[in-house]
Amino acid sequence: MARIHARRKGRSGSSPQTRQENPKWSPKAKDVEKKIVELASEGHSTSQIGIALRDTHAVPSVKLAMGKSISKVLAEKELAPLLPEDLTNLMRKAVRLGEHLKVNKKDIHNTRSLRLTEAKILRLAKYYRSNNVIPAEWKYSLSNAKLLVG
User: How far is the C-alpha of 128 from the C-alpha of 83, rounded, in Å?
Assistant: First the structure.
């Protein structure tokens, strides 16, 4: 698959997992679920929870251990954030670029970067609206993004 905003071809660096089942030495599903809930209540994001489980608690894959992802576990426990993490991160980036462009009005490279980032946000929001992850009436604007992630 080609890259979105580039003329050259690119490929995702991910590859499928080689394991089919959870290793015997890794923690059990109940322990992993307790740790996920504990880390989420401390205010960690889903990616931070995954990194902490991998690096400090020897969980090679939450999906292999529990049969579901971290975000699904958080949704079941009603600890999931209002907006998905990838959308929130893109909105943070857009807010930073908008603040930069207020001061540096002639910065054409970052003006383009802001346009590309906003295009990604709109495309991702369309996907999440179609899958009922975010409300159908949710709209993106830079001013609303400042309020949401500010």
Answer: 9
